[in-house]
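User: Teach me something about this protein's shape.
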Amino acid sequence: MPNTVSALDALARLREGNGRFSQNLTSLDRMMTYQRRAELTAGQKPFAIILGCSDSRAPAEILFDQGLGDLFVIRVAGNVVAPSQIGSVEFAVSRYDTRLVVVLGHSHCGAVAATIETLIEGEDSESRNIASIVDRVKPSVQPLLDTDLRHDRDALRRAAVRANVRASANQLRHGSRIIESLIESDGLLVVGAEYALETGVVDFFDGVPDA
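Assistant: First, the predicted structure itself:
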């Protein structure tokens, strides 16, 4: 089931869906029907790939007001990029011809906050598995500690969320020959975005083409 939705069209659909969500005009009840479930047994063609955080407050399908079969969602604490996440993106762009990848961070991210605490206060996790997530966030946060943001913890957290999103998006753009090739020759777009828990609005701020 080849996908015919371009990256820019997919981005527009996500923006429209988030607009509905943030204005309390969601339409999921209409989309989650028996007929839709039956249609999807024949296959799927998600129009966008979302690499987002596992935080329970940031479910991509709801934030973008999309239904069954619309989004290929990969969730991991801190929206970090490891080989399994790259492989998942490669699978979707190759198998379903999906041409938009969104790295979706969010305000008040616990993984980012834990990383800041580790760097400033030296409080390493007793779990090596949790530490592996923090270690993937550290490179994007560490440079911020050399700025005046170090003295404003709230501003530091906000800047760190976006820095982490940018780092993950760049890892996807440059960490896979498959993804790189599709970006160069077949219209694949990797963008970064942040969901604001306070307003419900998703801001696409990284890698978005000029209008």
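Now, about its shape. The mean pLDDT is 93. The two ends are 30 Å apart (CA to CA). If you'd like, I can walk through any region in more detail.
User: That's plenty for now, thanks!
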